[in-house]
Design a protein that fits this description.
By secondary structure, this protein is mainly alpha-helical. Helices cover 61% and strands 4% of the residues. It has a two-stranded antiparallel sheet.
Amino acid sequence: MQGIPPQQIPPQQQQIVGGQVAQGGVVQTPYGQPVVYAGQPSQAAKVIGILLMIYGGFSIISGVLTAAGMSYFNSYMSDIGGEDITEYMPPTWIYVVQGLAGSIAGVAYLYSGWLIQSFKKNGFWIAWAALGLTYIMGIVVAAATPYPSDIYGDDAGFLRMTTIGSTAVCGLFSAAFCGVLLAIPLFISNNGME
C-alpha cells in the first residue's frame, strides 16, 4: 500500500500589531478580548451644539430687549391712542419677568450648547431644563394677560381659559419637538458623548 502524502499546509503569517504578535489576523489583548477599533465620533453633537449656542445668543438679545423695551410699550400705545389702555395690556412686570427668564434660558442654551459640542452629556439636561423654563413662562404670560369684560363681554373667562389651554398644549408639543431634535446626537451609535 502506498501512503497518502500529507497535505502541504502553508505556514501562518504573523502580524505585529501594537507590540503583540497576532495569529491569523486576530488581535488579542492580554485578557483574551478582541480589540475593537472605533472610527471618529459623529459630528452631530457639534452641529447641534453650535445651533443651540446661536439660539442662546438670540434668546439673550430678545430677553434683554423684552425686559428693557417692552416696559415702554404700554405707555407708547397709550400715547398713540390718546387714552390710557394699560389696563387692557399685560402688566409691565410680566414683560420684565419674561425678558429675564428668556435671558436666563439664553445663557443656559449657550452653556449647554458649548457642553454638547464638547461631547458632554450634561449639556442635554441643561438645555431640556431651559426648554421647560420657557414652556412654563409661556403659560404664565398667557395667564397674566388681561381680558377685560367691557371689551370681551361674558366670553372673557372662556377666552382666557382657551388661551391658557392652547398655550399649554401647543407649548408642550413645541418643547417636545425641540427636545427630540436636541437629542439627535444621543440616537447615533458612535456619538462620542461622555
